[in-house]
Design brief:
Layout (H helix, E strand, L loop, with lengths): L1 H8 L22 E4 L2 E4 L6 E5 L8 E7 L6 E2 L112 E5 L13 E3 L11 E2 L18 E7 L12 E5 L7 E3 L18 E7 L8 E9 L7 E2 L20 E7 L11 E6 L7 E2 L19 E7 L8 E9 L7 E2 L22 E8 L2 E3 L7 E5 L2 E3 L5 E13 L2 E6 L2 E5 L6 E11 L1
Antiparallel strand pairs: 1-2, 3-4, 3-5, 6-7, 6-8, 9-10, 9-11, 12-13, 12-14, 15-16, 15-17, 18-19, 18-20, 21-24, 21-28, 22-28, 23-27, 25-28, 26-27
Amino acid sequence: MWLCVVVALAGCGGGGAPGPECSADADCGPSATCQAGSCNDKPMACKTPWYADGDGDGFGAGEAKLACTRPSGSVGKSGDCNDGDSTVSPDAAERCDAMNVDENCDGQIDEGCSGPDGGVPDAGMAGGAGGGAAGGGAAGGGAAGGGAAGGGAAVALDAGQPGCVPQTEVCDGVDNDCDQQIDEGVTVACLSDADSDGWATSGVAAQVCPGASGGCPAGSVAPAASQGIDCAPASATEFRTVTVRPDTDGDGYCLGAPSSLCVGLTVPTGKRLTSGCQATDDCNDMNLMQYRTVQTRADGDNDGFCQAPVMNSCVGATLPAGLKLPSACTAGFDDCNDADADKFAVSAFIVDVDGDRYCSGQVVNQCAGHVAPAGLRFPAECITQSDCNDSNANLYRLLSVRLDGDGDGYCFGQPTSQCSGLTPPAGFRLPGQCNAADDCRDTNPAAGAQCIVSAGYTTSSASKACVLVPATETFTVSTTNICPTGFVLQSYHANRTWGTGTCTATGPLTLSMTCNGLDGATCNIVGTCVAL
């Protein structure tokens, strides 16, 4: 209401020259208003130009609208060359970027740049921050005599100009309080943050109108709240530069040279911060179960005896089957059969085919383990190495013996060497075990030193009478002694034991007896036995 009174005093009632007939302000043009059907010039205070500010950066674009007060969504500064991007305005700092953007809307791209992408021009260069002309211009290059903050085109009204009505200064690009300064004391220092991720586009702050909360508006961040310089200003998920190394399998062991990468809160899959990499490089970055290189030897049968030379192997926490650390291998041996845990060393063995521990003396080198193969023995297992018959476990030593074929203890012939066991073989006897006399018939155990037995055969006696009987008679007798077992009757004869008659043995059991006159005889048969 106070504003309307002041305006009225200044001539808002319309004292201008008569104009053409009209029915609305639109019929009168931008510098006049339709009053009572006539177009009349607007007073000076109502000819302030306003520009639509679509991105809220304090600079407008397009055709100006004249009004006594600021229309909603408008500002008094023009010159925004991209009213859809709050980081682009005449008040912005020119950035050296690869996108070829004219951030400060001066018609030049990356002017004054001397550094890499992402830098800003040196202070004092064309388009740089702090380059306003002398004469009281606002920060950012305002025109002399009260130019708009940030170099806008709006002109502040001096306190002595007709129509300047002092109001409370608000951030709108206009000298509201008529003190020849624009937006003084109502702006905030902010850093550009186009993707609103809390990381500033650059380190150069600009004075801008505050947002609805009183702090920096959308697309910017307060210097104290900035996390740092954004490495990807157009992406809210990438904002910090870190040093990474490849870790494709995600096992914590990295491979390859370090490189810089623009990331967000986390590092992409397949990469790892260098500080998070293990001290040693990954030997296989495609397999998370293999990451360290160790020296190994082959042990296919897992018997602790290794084969082949030392080699480098890519492994994980444990060694795969078939490999061992050299220190875990049995020293001094190369496995001669790495497919059989029972065979690991070539050893010298002695042949023992019959397994009697009396070895033949023949040496054989063969791959084996702790147990000798069948038919062989470790040398220390042999009782002797001179087995005389390695196909018979009962015969293993040479003995000096004599023949005793009938086993009667009477030996025959000279001593000879025979392959024996604990005792001489059958039909032989140690010399000390033979009787003193030699065997007369070594096939007959009943015949020892004597093969002839005189009178070994006898019969009963027969007596011949010589009275009233024939002079000669034949008598049959019976055996009283027969030849020993193994003996046979070789010869026999009549044996007269009484009288003078004659006796003749006509058979082993028959006697022919003849009288001598009247004198008879008593006789029997006696025979000689010989060994079979």
